[in-house]
Amino acid sequence: MDAIKNLHQRKTIFTYGVTQSEGGDVNVFPPGSSNGIIVPFSFLSKHVPQPFVKEWSGGMGQVIHDKFIIIDFNDKNPQLFTGSSNLAAGGEEQNNDNLLAFTDPNVAQLYAVEAIRLVDHYHFRAVLQNSSETSPVMLRRDDWCQSYYDPRNFKCQERILLAK
């Protein structure tokens, strides 16, 4: 767990993910603050524009149940771990959580695409949670692509990684 919590400090590793809680064992990083992004799960409970409606939170443990970690998804020997495991002692020792390992490059790439979709989706929802009538979510038209070419920005790292 310590290794996972400290991945963002390693400049050679690109981290990307969604966590159900902003507190606890996993740090949440806003875009551009590290060499990756981990966004909080945000259900739509406030500032919900029409035609959408507020969502029920589901309570703890009811929202993100299947978890997955992908290592070297675009390498010759990718590793994908998926299942109900929280990678924590309680679940492993008391709850009979499960964790499956896959090494098929095609499966790892499919999960990597799904990870990007989920992070983008929940990042938008987290931004929406902090919007208001005086500060609505706005699409920027000015230089939106510059971060994808700034070597200090994780979006640039993402672009290069996915182009391989």
Automatic annotation (TrEMBL):
Coiled coil: none
Alphabetized Pfam families for the sequence: PLDc_2 (PF13091)
InterPro entries: PLD-like_dom, PLipase_D/transphosphatidylase
SUPFAM superfamilies on file: Phospholipase D/nuclease (SSF56024)
Molecular function as annotated in GO: catalytic activity
PLD phosphodiesterase domain location: 60-91
Stated name of the protein: PLD phosphodiesterase domain-containing protein
